[in-house]
Amino acid sequence: xxxxxxxxxxTREIQRVFAEFGIQVINYRELISEKIFPTETATDQYQNAxxxxxxxxxxxxxxxxxxxxxxxxxxxxxxxxxxxxxxELKSLGLKTIREEDAYxxxxxxxxxxxxxxxxxxxxxxxxxxxxxxxIGRGGVTLAQSERGAYSVGFDTLxxxxxGKTFAEMQMSERVNYSHRGRAAKMLLEKIAxxx
Length: 195
Description:
It is built from six helices and seven strands; from the N terminus they run βαβαβααββββαα. The protein has helices at 8-19, 45-57, 85-91, 97-106, 171-174, 179-194; strands spanning 2-3, 26-27, 65-74, 116-125, 131-138, 141-142, 158-159. Strands 2-1-3-4-5 form a five-stranded mixed beta sheet, with helices on both faces. A two-stranded antiparallel sheet has the order 6-7. β4 (116-125) and β5 form a beta hairpin.
């Protein structure tokens, strides 16, 4: 599979997730020069991922192209973030992952509802043009502080059903709880059921 993304950190995460299922994934930039993707919508996760996959498929028509669109939802802030979280945090001038994490934590006070989750949507466009997609949710609450050393960013903030943040779990455990792990498993099951 070839990942349609210019985000190296996202690509590494996707590679690690799919490696747990025995699937090798590479970034499209290993095959062709970097491209500028079409502008994403603020409302349609599926269309965002599909547009990225189809865009790269133009240049690599014989490859299975995988694209991801991820959103973050916070019960305390129903009208903020979602699909636009990365753009919103960037617009605030936050320059590092730690600054983004600190900002999210600063929005909460002790009595606020901390229910939150990440949602990943994968679209896989096959060489024959067939399209598969899957959605995975991970996380149930936002932690009180960053925790864990196995990953960075939001993985240090989102707690799963087992009480651990994603960053407190090695990948072999994390794929069972994380948004991308669950989406990958579902995607691979859909493909297997087609055969």
